[in-house]
Amino acid sequence: MVNQELAKIFQRISLYLAMREVPFKPHAYERVAFALESLAEDVGAIYKRDGRKGLAEIPGVGESIAEKIEEYLKTGNIRLYEQEVKRMPVDVEELTSLEGVGPKMVADLYRKLKIRNLKELERAARAKRIRKLPRFGEKTERNILEAIEFAKRREGRKLLGDIYPFVRDYELLLKESGLIQQVSPAGSFRRMRETVGDIDLLVTSRDPKKVIAYALSHIPYEKLWGKGETKISLRSTHGFDIDIRVVPRKSYGSALQYFTGSKEHNIATRRIAIEKGLKLSEYGLFKGKKMIAGQTEEEIYNAMGLAWISPEMRENQGEIKLADTRCPQKLPHIIGYQDIKGDLHCHSDWDGGDHSIEEMAAAAMRMGYEYIGIADHTKALHIEHGLDEKQLEQRNKEIDNLNSKFEARNSKQIQNPKFKILKGVEANILKDGSIDIKDEVLAQMDFVIAGIHSNMKMDRQKMTERMIKAMRNPNVDIISHPTGRILKKRDEYQIDFEAFLKAAKETGTILEISAWPERLDLNDQNIRRSKEAGVKMIINTDSHNKNQLHLMEFGIAQARRGWAEKEDIINCWPLEKLLKYFK
Ligand code: DGT
Ligand code: CA
Ligand code: CA
Question: What does pTM read for this prediction?
């Protein structure tokens, strides 16, 4: 947990320094925050073992930041951070989480109007006080109010990616108690919904009271919503709610089935039980007074004449009908968490990513992948150090050299004998639908991803035309994060999605499912629509750091929620088949 706490502090320091317009440093702190978030080992453990030197080996951590980590581990504080907070006591995270509000604006608002948080910002905007500030104006004020409305609508739900590490920690914590037999997350988390309202955890134990006492003494919380003999409900100090329930072993399956939901799925399964003269509840499946199933989910579904259904599919969207053993159609054989053979949207240090192509490739090999695609940004994206034609040609040479080196080395290695690095780009779709890199150079790539990174607020017809024109480019293979939404921050582009799908099908363009936790774009619904339209998809992480490759899991989860099968997802395919599919 120390990693996450430190990441948060460094993220805030980065924002505070940006508020004061300190050059370079904000980026350095942001990078460290990123690296810490996805670091597998606990920094405390690293420090214990290797001291400050060990800390300095974490990507992005230099001398001075290593010192700060040490300071935090020793004192629980970082002086620099406290000074910054004192200088400008604003909730910089909350304010900059608004679309269009950056650190400089936050600093201005504090200096001129003493605005410290969202509430005060909203009050000032409604009182029309913001438009009077120099460099703000009426339009900015309106945008701020719009962004606040957006934030309010999403309030309360957390991103799956944000709470994921905590849930895994709680699971471990409960396992280590020695008091329990089984533990599983339930609810929307187990269904891997893109956002989660509260965390539901289910355990079996002979001693529920002790489990409850253990949880209360081991999970830091700020509010206790309720406490019973077998249940507690609390708000963790990290700001999200957790329900923990202890159930008897013989009811574990039925409780898991019930608390996994969704509610709509439960209502439908309960109705099926009634039709068969049975009664289904969290305690078990009953015929009269006799319990006929309860220990596992399988036996419950089976006793109702249904096949077991993956949690990701339990949204009452037709899955129950297909699970009926009498139904001639079967449930789709959705992709598994181990089915991905490579990640094609990875950035390298060529465009400002944290790791070299070789390091990214080595990390991909460790994940058991057969290939990795390097898709650096291209020149129209200045802030991301986009590459021009000449730099791309140089970068491609490096990839060729690495591939030859791997071939030589792999001949003696049994692991991943055919591993390949593919040459790609993430090029920009300009306002008129053209691509910012010359066709001759695009043609030299193994694959081309194109995405929208500017002019996102176009009207529906123009945006649709722009996308379709990009897909008609004979070099464009993949459209990255196709709808452009950022969870809790920004809506999708205005686009005619049906026309977009039709053009993707016609041109053989592949749609990306971005596994990046703030994007998850395509989302589950659009994945299902694409599958039904016969449009192929690819799940990519958009990693800018080798420690982000594991984010793949979130993309796979959304693909499973969208009922995608191996045939629909091209990076479940072997390399040859994949390469043949590109234009
Ligand atoms: P969330 O927390 O809003 O992201 O969504 P869930 O699905 O985790 O919902 P939650 O935490 O309120 O409840 C967990 C599960 O318990 C839910 O998925 C299904 C079950 N459940 C809760 N309330 C009801 C209910 O009124 N009827 C039925 N049939 N099931 C319920
Ligand atoms: Ca829940
Ligand atoms: Ca709940």
Answer: 0.81
